[in-house]
Task: structure prediction
Amino acid sequence: MLKIYNTVERKIEDFKPLGEVIKIYTCGPTVYGFQHIGNYASYIYWDLLIRTLKLNGFNVKRVLNFTDVGHLTSDGDEGEDKLEKGAAREGKSVYEIAKFYSEDFLRNYHALNLTEPDVIAKATDYIEDDMKAVDKMTENGFTYETADGIYFDTSKFEKYADFAKLDLSGLQAGARVGFSSEKKNASDFAVWKFIQPGEKHAMRWDYLGRPGYPGWHLECSTIIDKELGSPIDIHTGGIDHIPVHHTNEIAQTFAMTGRELAKYWLHCNFITIDGEKVSKSLGNIYTLDDLAKKGFSAMDYKMWVLSGHYQGTRNFTFESLEAAKIRRLNWRNRIAECYQKNVKGINDFKEKLLDAVNSNLNSAEAFALIDNEELSLKQWGIVDELFGLRLIEESPKISEETYALIKEREMARKEKNFARSDEIRDELIKQGITVKDTPEGPIWQYI
Ligand code: AMP
Ligand code: ZN
Result:
């Protein structure tokens, strides 16, 4: 039985599906710049969620959105639209920026072998639906108009503070003087922004007789309603989304439909470097291409991410990435060995593997099981199905003779016959194979 943490209840619960098909929504990238390894960690965790559900026999429909309009630099209602910022930075149009960074995201997404979403929803494809959603919220009495947009009146939604356990009076007291003075409550947010005369904003649509664009939070409620229908089973995102973005999504969906948005909410914690959150503003970001330049593949990074837990704080170091890489090479070698000798595997492997990941996606425990048990080729197939680590596909295919040499070298080293082991190593290099001695034992691979 799958157990997952539920942000609503703040505890780990048995997962109970709402219907035949599990409806899942993931808040996706804002496509105005390169995504860093912290961003990709979140998609790796949610891929594990999807694959775990599938291995448990569930059917899944999963939607991922691309934010290509409306996300302001403040995450609230202030600052520049991130897409406009990207366009100014690179001297391109906002549409070119969105296209370029969407494609870059997908290239990395595929390199990580992440499950293809059933729907990839671009925010700009749902503008008509956004307008209808604002109409509906207005009709239901949840909005008011100011000079710069249509705002959601959070005092109208009784449960507004519940999800994030917000202190609304503290928020009100801390609200900055002068900022959008027409706002009734500090927590109110724009569902639609008007473009002021002279304001630069390339993406614009006519609504209520004026040019404007949707507020960032709106797209997720609109897309969910259109593509999945609320309530959905599981909504995922980073912990940074709890107090504002997800809280606002919940409020909007209630105002539009009178329904709950999602039954389970999963939030991942941040990847840090030297104890600091990986973020563009701190300038400590690595992309997957940066890791590749240092000799680490997307799969090595995925292995590193999956060796920890989505709710834990994870500090990224190149030493720990190296350890993950070695571990993966070791697994690939064990698969290559399966072609050389008949490995029976352990009993009930799939059940044992599921026991581990069904405990709130504990991939680390599953990894320990894999480390400690001898697996058959078929069982390695299940490992690949669950983690998408391309282990079988990338396991080195070697001849019997080469395998015999590798084993002879291991023996020679055990007997401290280093002259012979060096001789064999040279012979293996001639055959295009390097051998590296690690605490996990010798690891070999094609050069
Ligand atoms: P963004 O493109 O900024 O909207 O971010 C995409 C996703 O990455 C969101 O779900 C964020 O919560 C998540 N995210 C951002 N920074 C990190 C980080 N350092 N570690 C893990 N996830 C992150
Ligand atoms: Zn969202």
